[in-house]
Amino acid sequence: MKKRILTYWLLLLTFPFLGYAMEGDGSSQAPFVIGSLDDFLQFRDTVNNGYSTACALLESDIDLSTVCYGDEETEEYHHWLPIGEGNSGQKYEGCFDGKGHIIQNPYVNSSTENFRGIFGFTHKATIRNIGVENAYIHGGYYVGGLIGKGDSTLIENCYTRGDIYGYFVSGIIGNASNCTLRNCYSTCTTQGNYHSALIGYATQTTAENCLFDSQIVKNGVGFGDAATIALKTEQFQNGTASQKLNEYVQNKGDNSLVHWEQDAQSLPTFAKNENGLNPILQGNGIQLYVQAHHIHVLTKQEESLTIYDRQGQIRMRCISNGNQDLGYFPTGIYFINGKKTIVKD
């Protein structure tokens, strides 16, 4: 405890701009806790002023529309300055866990702005559990919805939506060298040289269970090799994409990964309540969860299930083995093998 306090005070002396707003000291054992836009901007400035290995947990959604925007009538433009700005040599080298929160409205509109994304340039970093929505990032070289350029970086359980333009440009990461992408998706529109849905320019980079809408952008990778999965718009809207993302979390993920559900636009987003893939019943080898009015069951062996509604009427009898969608259930209370399960709007 004394060592942690001493470390924190040394950080305050070294980086006086930290102030007292954020909890934690930025280490992997006590990451900064970001609970507001002010915290997020302070974290960005802390990294760009030299604390490149700072780790953080995001505890709330962030709306950037008040700090980066463009007004064509007044010709007033405020561009997003990313974490790990890149142009001046700053890199982000820490671990950032979005914990299922959304960063909205990042804005860049300048062909001279390089290394542009929420993160500009990452090196040996880990970025997970972040959604980026309504991104408008039109930059120069190395432009991505999440990361402009990354080296030896892990990107896991993330998604992006928006409009991205530049050279070496993509919905997730513009230029990726020795990077790993796992369980991500993008529905961004992209334009420019070496543009794609997920990775603009890939060098010794791998992708696992990373999805894109091929009816928006036809290629998952602009240049290079990485195994991405092309889906159609309907598959994002009907829950197929969410199911694929959740199967990865369920089968290959760990407790750090957030589960998925469908949002009001019928696209995958992070689960925030029991209507996501949060287990409802665990025991005797059975796991149940609810997603977009569908009840799913995951069993390790063949199991008999009986589902009653709250009036005591049998809704279904079945035998399940593995991962099975039991189908659509209206809003209400159900009892599955005697355990209460709630389906909400």
Q: How would the global form be characterised?
A: globular
Biggest β-sheet, characterized? 14 strands, parallel
Compute the gyration radius: what is it? 22 Å
Q: Which percent band covers the strand fraction?
A: over 45%
Q: What class, by secondary structure content?
A: mainly beta
Low-confidence parts: 1-20, 274-279
Query: How many domains in all?
Result: 2
Give the assembly state of these chains.
single chain
In helices, the fraction of residues equals: 10-25%
The level 1 CATH classification of the largest domain is: Mainly Beta
Q: What is the end-to-end distance?
A: 45 Å
Question: Short description, anyone?
Answer:
The protein has helices at 2-14, 37-48, 233-237, 240-252, and strands at residues 32-34, 56-58, 62-63, 69-71, 76-78, 95-104, 107-109, 119-123, 126-144, 147-151, 154-156, 159-170, 173-177, 180-182, 185-186, 189-196, 199-203, 206-208, 211-213, 221-223, 229-231, 260-262, 268-270, 281-283, 286-291, 294-299, 303-309, 314-320, 323-328, 332-336, 339-343. It has 345 residues and is mainly beta. The protein has two domains: 17-237, Pectate Lyase C-like (3 Solenoid); 273-343.
Task: Sum up the structure in keywords.
Pectate Lyase C-like; 2 domains; disordered N terminus; five-stranded parallel β-sheet; 14-stranded parallel β-sheet; 345 residues; 12% helix; mainly beta; 4 helices
Describe the overall structure.
The chain folds into 2 domains: 221 residues, 3 Solenoid (Pectate Lyase C-like), CATH 2.160.20; 71 residues. The protein is 12% helix and 46% strand. The chain has 4 helices and 31 strands. Strand 30 and strand 31 form a beta hairpin. The longest helix is centred in the N-terminal third of the chain and has 13 residues. The N terminus is likely disordered.
